[in-house]
Structures are given as C-alpha cells and as structure tokens.
Amino acid sequence: MDHSKEVTQLVGQLGSLVKEAGYDEIYGYQIDPTGEFYDDATIEKLVYKLLKAYKFELQDTKKHIIEILKWRRKFDPLSAAFLEKHAPKFDKIGALTLNPDGASGQKVVTWNFYGTIDDPQDVFGHVNEFIRWRVGLMEQALNMLDLNDADNDYMVQVHDYKGASLFSMTGDAKKASTSIIRLFGDYYPEVLSKKFFVNVPALMSFLFNAFKSFVAEATRRKLVMMRNGSELSEYLKGSGVPKIYGGSSGKPLDELKLVFDKSKIKLPAYVSYLLETKIANQVD
C-alpha cells in the first residue's frame, strides 16, 4: 500500500512537533525543516519508519514523535554513546560488530552476553549506570545504519544465554531488564529486523515461548530462539558472523568486536555537529 500521503502530511508538520518538544533530533538526524542539516530524502525515510511503527496512524505517530523528542532532549543519548566513559565491567556483557556483507538488515549487530556476568549486583545494582551504558551501545549501533540504504536501515540484536541461570535474575537485574525493554520499545521503534535468543536453556525456552504468545504478531515475527548458538549462522549471514556462532570466516568474536572510534566511523553530520557543540560548551 502506498503511504506517501501520510509521509507528506507528517513531514509538513515536523516543524510544529519540534517546536512543541523543544528538540529537533531523532536517530542522529535533524528533523527541523528549517535546520542547516535537514535532508529531505533521509527525513522522508525516517518519517516512513516512524509511521510504520505506529501503523500509519498520523495522530498516534505525532504523539509518539513528541515523546521521543522530549526523551532525547532530557536523557541525551548521544552523550551516553560518544562522550561519556562507562565502567569497564560492561565491556564483556555487550558488544557491537559490523557484518559488512550481511543480508538486508544484518550488517550492524549488537550482542548481549548474560552468562558472563559474575556479580549481578555489581552490574545491575546501579540501574541508571547500566541504562546509560546500554543506551549508549544502542546509539552507537544506530548511527552506523544508513536510512538511504535498504540493506542497512535496520540492525540485529543477539542475546546469548550461555552460562546464564534463572537464579542470576535478581530483583535489580529484572528491574534493569524491564526498564531497558520498555525504553527501547518507547523510544527506538522500527530499528530491529530480528532479535535472536541463542544458547537458551530448556526452562528459559519454555518461558520464552510463553512470552511470545503475549506479544503482537509483528513483534513475534522478529523473535528467533535457538538452543545452540552455532545455529545462528543459519539465520545471520555474512563474514562478520563469529566462528563460535557457526560463522564461515573462522574469526573469534574478540577479533570482530568493533571498538567504536568516531574517527573511523562516519557519523551523520548533525551528530558530529552536536557532539562538537557539547564539547565546546564543556570547555567553556
């Protein structure tokens, strides 16, 4: 179905939404039509994504855009991603890789490792610290997408439960997980092509299947669960798939992890401008 009418209508109202929210950036792109970094073609694709997330209901989409803008103004996810220093304890529970020749929506991959957490209290005991780190990782991945490239306008998430136990799910861990799930659902719509759950223990598999029955069909189609991590290569194609997950390149995950470097990754121009402005203001 052609939704060009809804896209045109919403693009025409972005200025008023920006004014109401007091902020003009989503996913690293300036959405103020009068702004120096505004790009018509890119914003049309972003607007289409947002409309798709909310079933092309114009009023509902506008409401959510305002909420997203206000949250980004307050939380400042770009700082969490590119300016803040996060504790080394997070290094082994999350990663970002680039799968350069992956299939559509399989180039940028974020990884979460639940079995590597030695002390759940140390990781999840300070929920806000964990959330800022996890949002930062999401923003880094998001800024590697290209909305003008149909093969790279979505990302993949992998949740590895190897070594994890239900007993490690403390109250703080559940609170942090619930907060992140809600936050991503509210403020990062239509960015995932698939979410893989690998090395899932038998009991967790039962709980996962029960959980799937309660989510919307569109979301359910994006969730894939498997008992053995090596099966991932049946779904996630490309040379950037680590050997331990059945990848053909033979490279271990540690060699494929991307140490994010703004000098090596081309960020959207508006992100670079906002970061430079923040740094300059901090110096002043």
Automatic annotation (TrEMBL):
Please name the GO terms that the record assigns under molecular function.
metal ion binding; phosphatidylinositol transfer activity
Identify the keywords attached in UniProt to this record, alphabetized: Cytoplasm, Endoplasmic reticulum, Heme, Iron, Lipid transport, Membrane, Metal-binding, Microsome, Transport
The protein's topology relative to the membrane is: Peripheral membrane protein
Which SMART domains does the record associate with it?
SEC14
Mind naming one GO cellular-component term on file for this protein?
Answer: cytosol
Catalysed reaction(s) here are:
a 1,2-diacyl-sn-glycero-3-phospho-(1D-myo-inositol)(in) = a 1,2-diacyl-sn-glycero-3-phospho-(1D-myo-inositol)(out)
Please name the PROSITE patterns in this protein's record.
CRAL_TRIO
Against CDD domains, the record matches this protein to:
SEC14
Q: What is its main location?
A: cytoplasm
Q: Which cofactor does it need?
A: heme b
Query: What SUPFAM superfamilies does the database record attribute to this sequence?
Result: CRAL/TRIO domain, CRAL/TRIO N-terminal domain
Instruction: Report the transmembrane regions from the record.
Output: none
Its localization reads: Cytoplasm; Endoplasmic reticulum membrane; Microsome membrane
Q: Domain CRAL-TRIO: where?
A: 129-253
Gene Ontology BP annotations: Golgi to plasma membrane protein transport; regulation of exocytosis
Q: Which InterPro entries match?
A: CRAL-TRIO_dom (IPR001251), CRAL-TRIO_dom_sf (IPR036865), CRAL/TRIO_N_dom_sf (IPR036273), Sfh5 (IPR042938)
Its biological purpose is as follows:
Non-classical phosphatidylinositol (PtdIns) transfer protein (PITP), which exhibits PtdIns-binding/transfer activity in the absence of detectable PtdCho-binding/transfer activity. Regulates PtdIns(4,5)P2 homeostasis at the plasma membrane. Heme-binding protein that may play a role in organic oxidant-induced stress responses.
* Family according to the record: Belongs to the SFH5 family.
What is this protein's record name?
Phosphatidylinositol transfer protein SFH5
Q: Which organism is it from?
A: Eeniella nana
